[in-house]
Structures are given as C-alpha cells and as structure tokens.
Specification:
alpha/beta, 6-stranded parallel sheet, 3-stranded parallel sheet
C-alpha cells in the first residue's frame, strides 16, 4: 500500500510531536502493509517567503527523523515528501508554488474549509492546473458542500483522497463507489497525526475494501498512488 496523506514528520504541525512519536507512527504503518508513505505537513501560504520557510522547516524535520530511524534501525515505509496546502487564496500566483507539490511530481495535496464554501475554489484549482499542477483534494468526505464542488470540477484533472477511517464506515464506502463509478481517480490516505486518537487505520480499511472489490482496493490503495509518485 501507499499512504498519500500523513502528518508523521516531527514537530511541524499538529501531527507527531517528536521523533520518537514519528517513528512509532511509521513502524505501525509499515506493520499494516504500507510500503511507501507521503509525509504531508500542513501549509498555509500567503507569500513566496512562506514557501521558503516551510521547505526549510520541513528539511530540518526530515533530517531529524532520518537520524532517529537510523539510530533505532526501525523498519518503516519508504518516505516521500509534500505538503497539505490550505486553499484560502489563489496560490498559483506564487513563483515557487510548484515546490509545494509532492517531490519530483506535479501533484499537490490541498485542503479547504470543511464547512464554508468559497465560490472561487474551482477557479483557484483551475489556476493551479494551468501551471501543470494536479490537485489532490484531501479528505473529500469532510466537505459539507462536496457535491456542489464536484459538479464544478467536471473535466478537471483532479485526484480525490478519502481517509482510511472513513472507508471503515458505510458512508465512506458509498462515496468511494460513487467516485469510482464516475471514473474519478481516487486514493486513500491515513491522515495519521499521532498514536492515540488519530493513528493510522489504513490496513483495516484495505482489508474491508478488498473483501468488497479487490480491483478497486488495488487502485485506491496502490495503483493510482504509484502513478502519482512515479514508481
């Protein structure tokens, strides 16, 4: 499996508080069958300088984590790095916006307000596409206005990400089937933040979907994500 959405880099956001917790999260993820994990710390961007600062902070966190993994000789997934970018303005105007993509790809994980719909969301996503960036919409099940947004994105090159915990529920499976029936590209992410109340449930989610339809499970938990990161 490939986990496309996680908050396991230490001391960057509301995810792992330190290296020890990061390693525990990744060891647990690996034990569930995750071969690759994309680290996506939260990012709020209102200037080009914000992008520079975010990358600098992430680089330091990555080095700390790598040192900790080496010292513990821990078995963890292969790591890839991106951001979960909060869409509250037209980020396409920033010169280095492409650096917020998952490294060495043209894909960017973005999130929006859960409840407050902005009439410019589709326009902002389209502006990113004009720069060659493909948005991955984070945890689409959380947006109360998702049906309206989905209707505006017809024809857009967009990837829809559903959280693993949601796929353990009937409404999550229903949403997955609806998106799949529409021919959408769908991926799963753990959205793990810690080892307590927001730990990864991706292994259980895969087993559940695999029992219902192994073809969909392979696409959602591996094949589409492989295309995203180019492996």
């Amino acid at each position: 499996m490939i986990d496309v959405h996680s908050h396991c880099l230490p001391a960057l956001d509301d995810g792992a508080k330190d290296v020890s917790e990061s390693i525990d999260m990744l060891v647990n993820s690996f034990a569930q069958g995750v071969e690759r994990c994309i680290c996506t710390p939260h990012a709020i961007v209102h200037s080009d300088r914000d992008i520079v600062r975010l990358i600098e902070k992430r680089s330091k966190s990555i080095e700390q984590l790598k040192e900790g993994i080496a010292q513990k000789q821990a078995s963890v997934p292969e790591l890839h790095y991106g951001f979960e970018v909060f869409l509250d303005n037209d980020i396409s105007v920033y010169d280095n916006v492409d650096k917020l993509c998952i490294e060495n790809t043209r894909y960017m994980l973005v999130e929006m307000s859960f409840t407050k719909y902005n009439e410019k969301y589709a326009e902002w996503l389209y502006s990113l596409s004009l720069k060659g960036i493909v948005p991955i919409l984070a945890h689409v099940e959380r947006y109360t206005y998702f049906n309206k947004l989905f209707g505006e994105l017809g024809g857009f090159d967009v990837v829809y990400q559903i959280n693993a915990g949601t796929l353990l529920k009937s409404e999550g499976k229903k949403l997955l089937n609806e998106l799949y029936d529409y021919g959408c590209n769908v991926v799963c992410g753990s959205d793990m933040h810690n080892m307590l109340f927001r730990r990864s449930k991706i292994g259980k989610a895969f087993q559940k979907i695999d029992k219902l339809d192994s073809r969909i499970a392979k696409d959602v938990f591996k094949n589409t994500a492989k295309q995203i990161i180019g492996v």
